[in-house]
Amino acid sequence: MRQPDGSLTTVTRTVYFTHYGPVLNLPGVGWTEQRAVAYRDVYAANLRPYTLHLALGRARSLDAFKQAHAEHGGPSAVNTIAASDDGRAWYADASAAPDLAPDVIADWLGRLQTDAASRAADARGAILLDGSRSRSEWSREPDPRGPGLVPFARAPQLERRDYVFNANDSAWMPHATARLAGFSAVLGRERTARSLRTRMNARLLADTSPTGPAGADGKFSLDELAEVAFDNRGLASELLRRPLVERCTARSQVRVEDVTVDLAPACRALAGWGGRLNLDSRGAVLWREFITRFEPRDQFRAGPLFAEDFDPERPVDTPRGLAPARGERDQILEALAQAVRVMERAGLPVDVPLGQVQRANRGGRKVAVHGGHGFWEGVPNFVNFRPHATTLEPEPPAGRLVAGSRLLTSEGYPITGGTSFIMVLEFTDRGPRARALLVSGQTGDPEAPRFWEQTELFAAKRWRDVRFTEQEIRVDPGLTVTTLRGPRTR
Q1: Distance from first CA to last CA of the chain, Å, rounded?
Q2: Distance CA 398, CA 418 (A)
Q3: 373: nearest Cα among 410, 317, 404, 417
Q4: Which of 198, 234, 356, 469 has the fewest Cβ atoms within 10 Å of its own Cβ atom?
């Protein structure tokens, strides 16, 4: 272990194991005199992920693609979506999950309502079970991936002729009107509220009206799909912006933090904003500071933000409606006033363009980027800040949080994550046509000439064509060929 002075020394630790796995001491679910927590890893039990991916790469039809899952089990941790040139779309959540008895799952779901340790484990993506009872053991049913995992045959999956989708919610709603129900809750909750981002995706895909994003024929062309991917509509603003403007127009002054705030300029900024998260969007920054005044859980239920509660029969449309004032105090207008105060402290006008504040730092080169926070704003084109965990490139400055804000810093909204690899594709009689971007670039080397290139293409909403055929690759002016030969053998 490296020491503070740079020297190395050997450190010894005692690690305890049970037949489940190592005993861990984690905040919220720690080791006490009464309880120890052992961790069993579903990924370690998934014995054939590489065999699966090899089979997927060799599949020449959607049926063969699905058969690969049946023979080898699903991937470790991701949803699967596939489309075929014969007009079929398929979704599955065949990710690795422990196969638990129904009564064990019911007990676990009940404890989530009453037990803090169970909730702490759930927040980390883990399921806390009573390891002292044999009923908590994983199933011994055989599976191609190994025993103890939910078999592929019992994984939620759906094939359709129009579309399927997923936006990091559970498998319950892979389509605006179709539901996948009756599956293990370990794979995800059913009949629960969806994120604003999921609901926005569903709205975009389901809108086949002549004026919808899919055009007059109700079917996405390659150009239409590329356009809607960067359209930057946000569901939170589409649901709540107009009623908020009506309310702040009727009452222009609110007292917060012992200061009377004039809401008139903010109200005008929101009224003139179109609700999108583009570089030139004036009002988007103010909206973000308003909507993030509320807790994440508030987007899933009636409460301080929404008036109408979630209805499992209408998951795309609920919750909805701006919550009424609570007594003499209007929590909605107070949140807007607090957002104004944040922007004052940051030295920003309430109508500052988003591109002036939201930027990706690529090797010291700051590139203004569009997009929104998918969780709070409900934008399919999700951008955010997170520390680098999978690259050696330098950590860009995060800045100091502006007092009262969740996201705004002295660096504005620094962007390092979210939308990463994005591609649109269509099948034609001459083969696939596709456009794509790897927003963070092809290299992690800040000195490389193309380190920031695709970030700027993303910022300008300029796609690059994917060269698919051998002929397309050969005529690429940037093509270089390196021939590698192994050692000669006698």
Answers
A1: 46
A2: 16
A3: 417
A4: 469
